[in-house]
Specification:
The protein has 23 helices and 16 strands. Helix 21 packs across helix 22. The two termini are about 55 Å apart. The chain has about 575 residues and is α/β, with parallel strands linked by helices. Strand 1, helix 5 and strand 2 form a beta-alpha-beta unit. Strands 3-2-1-4-5-6 form a six-stranded parallel beta sheet, sandwiched between helices. The protein has a six-stranded parallel beta sheet with strand order 9-8-7-10-11-12, sandwiched between helices. Strands 13-16 form a two-stranded antiparallel sheet. About 35% of the residues are buried. Helices cover about 50% and strands about 10% of the residues.
């Protein structure tokens, strides 16, 4: 509906411009011809081509000299038309200029007075995709464009300027906004924008959620580690995000879980997205498998496949624990000429940075077409609009999807999901906390019927999800208390091992946090647990806690390094 209204307004504006241009042409031509006839043979006024053109142009300001001085004879019809059409053009131009000026001022005023809106900074694909997505969700979006406003822009609220400057942020009403997304192509610029926006919001006493795009996944992880280790401060949320990592999560949210047995995935290209696919697939496989010995076979095709897989398992040790990894560096052309050495791939992900090469590979290597519907996923960015030609979303499909096997996946469009971006590092750690608890209980033989907390994250009750988030958010405080911090996995140096006395301290801190959380929520002590009455026997000080309950907290703190490692971080001693 919104697109139809926009198209209708576009057609109306085009019609207005055509009428205006036609009126200008009529005024110029009829005026020129009319003066040529009127001044023919006249000795009082010059009537050369330039003189006639000058007099013609004077019609637009009601000041042609021959008509002011009084000519001879009646005015020709062409001149009558010209002297009426030209002032109409002038009046139309003044009215339109005034309308545009007033519209710009009204827009500026409305932008300054807006509350709870979203500010998107940047002019690239990520900024455009986010603006479009928020528009579809019915949110008011103010875009900050780094240069002059592009001609024909349909963005209603648009501010031109440098988003790093306070006056530009003020013009976009950042101090009244609900969220800001810094989406330029430079991570440093996005960080500066985010800091300036937070500073402005904090000075005004406002809560502003700020999200900054980090184009390099390793830098993104490093920045997330530094932010996670900081104490939480007033002024709202602040988070870095990366397109490839978010897109991989979105991809597997939409895909069915891996089949039981011995599934085999083929990843072509050890790019940022290809690596993210391997990690996310391993994470989903582990969360859904009660059998600790079940393995997911992953074949990575790349000239540096072995090095890439070694790096992945160094950063995310669980990948090596749950996957059977097979690097292949001979190139795709020879992959199918050697003995398969295992089952055919059930899923194929073509993740090359060269989008045309990715599409060419998917469309020409028929050995990749033997999976089920949607089993051949092709990463696209600039060429993602080609999906319409295959799936027929804009009408009848133009091209065949190879019996439904082919799936073109636009990473930017998929990653620019506000829900995904809002799920920051704390949210990911909270999921890991729950997943590890669920896996441990599954392997002990627990079931959903016996333990309602055994459901997956999406079905977990809100109160329990909030409890996991609170535990994850408190990790930075605990690490600071023992003189430690976080660093991305894969860097030089050894992981810090937690001694028994340190585990004891952290376990007591975790119990105190949990006790305060439950007390604030209205829970009270009782000899027997009754969730419906908000009663729990562990709502006592650490000294009075049972040995069993203390051991649960100790076990949780012993697994702290593994939980943090699942998100790509490690504990280091300062």
């Amino acid at each position: 509906m919104a697109d139809a209204r926009g198209a209708s307004r576009g057609h109306l504006w085009a019609a207005h411009r055509l009428v205006f241009v036609a009126l200008v042409i009529v005024a110029l031509v009829s005026g020129y011809v009319g003066f040529a006839v009127y001044l023919h043979g006249n000795t009082l006024f010059e009537h050369g081509p330039l003189d006639l053109l000058y007099d013609d142009l004077q019609l637009f300001v009601l000041g042609p000299f021959p008509l002011q001085q009084g000519g001879t004879g009646a005015l020709p019809v062409a001149l009558q038309i010209g002297r009426l059409a030209a002032p109409l053009v002038t009046v139309y131009a003044f009215v339109e200029a005034g309308r545009l000026f007033l519209a710009a001022e009204v827009q500026r005023w409305r932008t300054l007075r807006a509350r709870g809106h979203v500010v998107v900074c940047g002019s690239g694909a990520t900024a455009l995709a986010l603006t479009r997505r928020f528009g579809e969700l019915g949110a008011r979006v103010v875009s900050i464009h780094p240069g002059p406003v592009p001609d024909g822009s349909r963005r209603k609220f648009l501010v031109a300027g440098d988003a790093r400057q306070p006056e530009t942020l003020r013009s976009a009403g950042v101090h009244r906004a609900g969220a800001l997304y810094a989406c330029t192509d430079d991570t440093a610029t996005n960080t500066v924008i985010a800091l300036a926006a937070r500073r402005m919001a904090k000075d005004k006493g406002a809560e502003l959620a700020v999200y900054a795009l980090a184009t390099d996944p390793e830098l993104c992880l490093a920045l997330q580690a530094r932010h996670l280790g900081q104490p939480r401060s007033a002024g709202g949320r602040f988070e870095f995000f990366n397109i490839d990592e978010l897109a991989a999560r979105k991809l597997f949210d939409d895909l069915p879980p891996p089949t039981a047995g011995a599934p085999h995935i083929l990843v072509i290209g050890a790019t940022s997205f290809g690596r993210a696919v391997v990690v996310e697939q391993a994470r989903r496989w582990r969360a859904g498998q009660p059998d600790a010995d079940a393995r997911l076979t992953v074949t990575l095709v790349d000239e540096n496949a072995a090095e890439a897989l070694a790096d992945i398992t160094h950063r995310y040790s669980f990948v090596g624990d749950v996957c059977r990894l097979r690097p292949y560096d001979k190139g795709l052309a020879t992959l199918f000429t050697v003995p398969a050495g295992g089952p055919a791939a059930t899923m194929v992900f073509v993740c090359l940075d060269d989008e045309e090469a990715s599409l060419r590979t998917a469309l020409t290597v028929d050995r990749l077409w033997h999976g089920g519907p949607g089993s051949l996923v092709v990463r696209l960015e600039r060429l993602s609009s080609l999906r319409d030609a295959f799936d027929g979303s804009a009408g009848d499909p133009l091209l065949d999807q190879v019996a439904g096997v082919l799936r073109l996946f636009g990473v930017v469009e998929a990653a620019c999901d506000p829900r995904l971006i809002r799920e920051d590092v704390t949210e990911r750690l909270a999921r890991v906390v729950h997943d590890r608890y669920r896996i441990a209980r599954l392997r002990r033989g627990d079931s959903v019927e016996d333990n309602p907390s055994m459901v997956d994250w999406g079905r977990l009750p809100v109160t329990q999800r909030e409890s996991c988030r609170a535990q994850a958010e408190d990790m930075g405080r605990k690490l600071r208390a023992i003189g430690c911090t976080l660093a991305p996995c894969g860097g030089p140096g050894d992981d810090h091992q937690l001694a028994d006395d340190t585990v004891e301290l952290l376990a007591e801190m975790e119990h105190e946090r949990w006790l305060a959380e439950r007390t604030d929520a209205g829970w009270r002590f009782a000899e027997q647990r009754a969730d419906d009455r908000l009663e729990h026997p562990d709502l006592v000080a650490w000294e009075r806690l049972s040995t069993v309950a203390k051991d649960k907290n100790r076990d949780a703190m012993r697994s702290l390094a593994d939980i943090i490692g699942d998100a790509g971080f490690r504990i280091v001693q300062l």
